[in-house]
Amino acid sequence: MGWWPFGDSQSLDPSPPTRQERQKCWESRDAYFACLDGVGVVKPGTEGKACSAENHIYEKTCAQSWVTYFNERRKLAFQQKGHARSSKCAKRCHEALTELTRETGATYSSPMLNDICTILAL
């Protein structure tokens, strides 16, 4: 296996990928990730046989280091998206409960409001 394992695994050519090879890699990555989205899978490699054809092409056309990088970026992007969504929900919840306590005269501690909002965000 060569230093830069694009395409044929028997190639020993250490040259960087061409523009066309990079484009093929990105297209195969996008097709594989679209398949994962279609079956509701976030973590690449956990989809079973659902996207095996797309995964095979993706791993064949991209360097292993790129595959690892793209897969990690996908997982991280979903984690960040979920965290941002839950943070926004928790903030809105806290504001709504604070307003409710003002209107009703009920007394809740700030930590209690945070706990309620955390539970509701789940």
Automatic annotation (TrEMBL):
Q: What is its main location?
A: mitochondrion
UniProt KW keywords = Disulfide bond, Mitochondrion
- Pfam families tied to this protein: COX6B (PF02297)
Report the GO terms under cellular component.
mitochondrion
Which superkingdom?
A: Eukaryota
Keyword Mitochondrion, does the record have it?
Answer: yes
| Places the protein is found | Mitochondrion
The protein's matches in InterPro entries, at most eight in alphabetical order, are given as:
COA6_fun, COX6B-like, CX6/COA6-like_sf
Q: Where is this region: Disordered?
A: 1-20
- Homology family: Belongs to the cytochrome c oxidase subunit 6B family.
The entry's protein name is Uncharacterized protein
Source species of the chain: Mycena sanguinolenta
